[in-house]
Design goal:
Layout: H1 2-37, H2 46-68, H3 76-110, H4 114-139, H5 150-166, H6 176-190
Length: about 190
């Protein structure tokens, strides 16, 4: 099992390096495409023609979203870079979470009663992820009834509803997810997980 965990750690390290270089390439492409779109490079030169022919069609979905939101089409390369970087960070976070869960499972299987502790620890981790998804989805105005978001509301509403009755509101800011996150951390430490 140690070989599996070592191989997984090597896999995550390779993915981390690949994502770094992907972000560097995306940054260079975004810079050149922005220079072409803002006409800082000759619009009739070979670089501009290449980017209009091959890169701009790939950025078209992002450009449509930006223009629907009221933004400028020239900012599409930068928003694409943001999407690449944030997507890479989320992927690394998920891979690290899976690796940590696998390591906890190995340790839990070696000790008596450890499997129950590992499963309980996983429950805390899933509720934390659900809180995170719920907060991030509220920033983007996503519907709580969306099939991608609904599970986070189901897993966290049992904890947030009583907190909302106790914690005073601070204008439009809802701090109950932060309090719930800290309460989960305290409960996990008290249980020794």
């Amino acid at each position: 099992m140690d070989q599996f965990l070592g191989g997984y750690a090597l896999f995550v390290a390779v993915v981390r390096q690949a994502l770094f270089w992907l972000a560097v390439v995306a940054a260079l492409v975004a810079l050149v495409d922005w220079l072409v779109r803002t006409r800082r490079l000759n619009p009739f030169g070979p670089v501009a023609r290449f980017f209009r022919r091959f890169v701009d069609p790939a950025l078209l979905p992002m450009e449509r979203r930006i223009t629907r939101a009221g933004g400028l089409p020239t900012s599409a390369p930068w928003w694409t870079l943001v999407a690449v970087v944030v997507g890479g960070l989320v992927l690394l976070w998920v891979l690290e979470l899976i690796g940590g869960m696998a390591a906890n499972l190995v340790v839990g299987l070696e000790s008596p009663g450890g499997l129950a502790r590992v499963l309980l620890g996983w429950v805390f981790d899933v509720v934390r992820v659900a809180l995170f998804v719920r907060v991030i989805s509220s920033w983007f105005g996503m519907s709580p009834y969306s099939r991608w978001i609904r599970w986070s509301y189901v897993l966290t509403e049992w904890m947030l509803a009583p907190l909302r009755r106790v914690v005073p509101t601070m204008g439009p800011l809802d701090i109950t997810p932060i309090i719930a996150f800290f309460l989960l951390s305290i409960a996990q430490r008290l249980l020794g997980l």
